Amino acid sequence: MESLYDIYCPGELLEGQQLDQVRAKLAALFKANDATLDKLFSGNPQLVKRGCDKPTALKYKQAMENAGAKPLIKAVEVASAHEATCCSTIKC
Asked: 29 φ, ψ to 5°?
């Protein structure tokens, strides 16, 4: 079974980066408005992408780092197809 990953923006900058420049780059990257950017830099990790495969997670990581932001990637436990379709509503 393939692992899935959630991508978060904890609002942290990579060393040597300036907040206004990183905000501008993330705004372009995610097509985000000021309200969304305020959430991304609120101090609480914000979910950017849910349940993506490893190659996609690495693309997001690289893109965010290129913008000067420090991404947070968490592996997600995935239930088996049987559990997802059967056991979520019926006790097996």
From this structure: -65, -45
pLDDT per position as a tens digit, 1-20: 679 999 999 999 999 999 99
CA–CA separation, 71 vs 62, rounded Å?
9
Nearest C-alpha neighbor of 3 from the set 47, 65, 83, 58: 58
Whole-number Å distance between alpha carbons of 30 and 4: 21
Q: What is the pTM of this model?
A: 0.79
The residue length of the chain stands at: 92
Strand partners for 52: 5
Burial 71-84 (b: 16+ CB within 10 A, else e): bbbeeeeeeeeeee
